[in-house]
Amino acid sequence: MNSTISPPLAWSDSLLLGNIGIDDEHAVLAECIGRLQSARDEDLALALDEVLAHAAKHFAAENALMLDTAFPPRDCHIKEHEAVLSSLGGVKRRLTHGDVEVARRLADELASWFPAHVQHLDSALSHWLCKLRYGAKPLVLRMGRKSTAESAS
Ligand SMILES: [Fe+2]
Ligand SMILES: [Fe+2]
Fold it and tell me: How many domains are there within the chain?
């Protein structure tokens, strides 16, 4: 049974940062997290694997951008990525032993964590990259649709 507390995370243009590569990967990750929140018990392991695979790939790409450009606050950002991957791995192990509730809690925590991470740490990275490439802030055009995280608050 799905006992998720929060509404499933959905991508919205409030999460756009103005870096096409990062934005595209965030859209996929948001959808993966939303699917994990909505998954039936029997589908949780597969949904968690999808989140883990995409998060690992995306975090590695961001980490490389931060290291390659000597992004000043890279250490704390990289540590946060590592902490999330560690949590995902730990929950995956517990889920193999039948701990469904810990996976449900993780799904809701990810749905709360993701928009905050995007709007704070990833936003700073996007600004940094844009400044390096173009000497200006990113230009983001939003259509005004709110994310599920904003609608719920
Ligand atoms: Fe990100
Ligand atoms: Fe990040």
Answer: 1
Average pLDDT estimate for 104-125: 97
User: Is-contact 118 26, C-beta < 8 A?
Assistant: yes
Indicate which CATH number applies to the domain containing 147: 1.20.120.50
Structural domain range at position 113: 13-152
Query: Maximum distance among all alpha carbons in the chain?
Result: 51
Q: Is residue 8 part of a domain?
A: no
User: What does the pLDDT read at residue 138?
Assistant: 81
CB 73 within 8 A of CB 124: yes
The pTM (predicted TM-score) of the whole model is 0.88
Distance (Å) from CA 43 to ligand 1 centroid: 25
How much distance in Å is there from the Cα of 55 to the middle of ligand 2?
9
The CA distance from 76 to 121, in Å, is: 9
- The answer to whether residue 1 is domain-embedded is no
Cα 77 to middle of ligand 2, angstroms: 6
Give residues whose Cβ lies within 5 Å of ion ligand 2: 62, 122
- With respect to residue 2, please indicate whether it lies within any of the assigned structural domains: no
Whether 72 is covered by a domain: the verdict is: yes
The mean pLDDT value for 79-107 works out to 97
